[in-house]
Design a protein that fits this description.
Layout: E1 12-15, E2 22-25, E3 42-45, H1 46-51, H2 53-61, E4 66-70, E5 73-78, H3 81-109, H4 112-123
Parallel strand pairs: 3-4
Antiparallel strand pairs: 1-2, 4-5
Length: 133
Amino acid sequence: MASDQGRPTRGRMRVSEGGPPVVVERSADEAGAAPASWQRLHRVSSSTAKNEFASLVHRVEGGEAVVVMRHERPAVVILPVAEFEVLKRVAADRLEELTRKYDADLDEVNAPAIWTATSTAFHTPLDEPLPSD
């Protein structure tokens, strides 16, 4: 959320919808805090990442993921190439699965019997009962 100056707010946000501003507490997730599962990952500030990039690359090449923090919030995760490839493959597999399901659903909806029944329903006067099978 943005403050009056257009910068992100921290800890609280001002909400104004036609009335006076209201102060609302944000949860840790809304505030951009790292999830608890990230506590075991190596975290560095963005300035440390910039100054020690070569050592971070060696660490990541060794199989460790590194979270780069900006203003105490996770901004970037540096992953080994193998992990990145796995994530890409999982995403591609999931997309393929969703595409197959969508295509099957679309084929079912576009079946001639469905079109015939839909056309009959739309063209039957409201005061007449629909024909039964």
